[in-house]
């Protein structure tokens, strides 16, 4: 089953850019050359984005490949496909990797077992709020928002997985 998504590299040291391209290339089995531009939210870093097409689960493989570069801020989305939820992965240095399932309109979807576990493990309302915020990726969204805004209007490449 084929799907598509987007890789947003919100910030990366410029010296790491070729490694990011290599990591994406190895997952997509195609040469990847990104259109890098300065990231104003973090002077001295660069940003890039690209769309991709590949089999279901490609977003997870891309996130795993980019996670090796702990100083890189990124988000990867995968659109829903028949029988499979969409996904979003966010990585922020100091917070690590976050993953959530997404609905057709991009909202984060929590499963009933996730909610039951959060309710059962929360001794206070504040603890429940913290747990739900983590499940929804609130801290990652807050940490990336400035980088998302700074990337508006940047060039985007289109990538297709081979095979």
TrEMBL record:
Matching Pfam families: DUF3145 (PF11343)
Entry-linked InterPro entries: DUF3145
Designated name of the protein: DUF3145 domain-containing protein
Organism of derivation: Actinomycetospora chibensis
Organism phylogeny: Bacteria, Bacillati, Actinomycetota, Actinomycetes, Pseudonocardiales
């Amino acid at each position: 089953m084929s799907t598509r998504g987007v890789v947003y590299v919100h910030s990366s040291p410029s010296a790491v850019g070729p490694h990011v391209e290599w990591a994406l290339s190895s997952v997509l089995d195609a040469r990847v050359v990104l259109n890098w531009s300065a990231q104003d939210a973090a002077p001295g870093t660069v940003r890039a984005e690209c769309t991709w097409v590949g089999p279901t689960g490609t977003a997870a493989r891309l996130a795993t490949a980019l996670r090796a570069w702990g100083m890189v801020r990124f988000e990867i989305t995968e659109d829903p496909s028949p029988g499979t939820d969409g996904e979003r992965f966010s990585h922020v240095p100091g917070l690590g990797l976050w993953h959530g399932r997404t609905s057709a309109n991009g909202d984060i979807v929590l499963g009933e077992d996730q909610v039951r576990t959060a309710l059962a493990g929360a001794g206070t309302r504040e603890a429940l709020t913290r747990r739900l915020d983590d499940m929804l990726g609130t801290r990652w969204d807050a940490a990336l928002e400035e980088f998302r805004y700074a990337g508006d209007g940047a060039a985007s490449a289109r990538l297709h997985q081979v095979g």
